[in-house]
Amino acid sequence: MKFPDCAIVHRCEICNDRADPHEIVTRGAGGKRVDWNVIYLCLAHHGEFHDRGRTTWAGLYPQFADKIWEACLRAGRGRHDA
Question: Would you say residue 81 lies in a domain?
Fold first, then answer.
């Protein structure tokens, strides 16, 4: 198993549908799969995050703005970095 939490059924933090972990700052951009960098999103909200970018997406879902900002800072990324 690639990640130990893959066997756990998670729920989207927005709509409560089945979800997968999503790294706010991708591993390729310096992020890690740790609590401060992960939100659980269904396929639709995950796609929306990528389509809009994290800054615009956080404007739609302000309850995640602080977590996104913290993840960017911890990963050494600026708020508006892609």
Answer: no
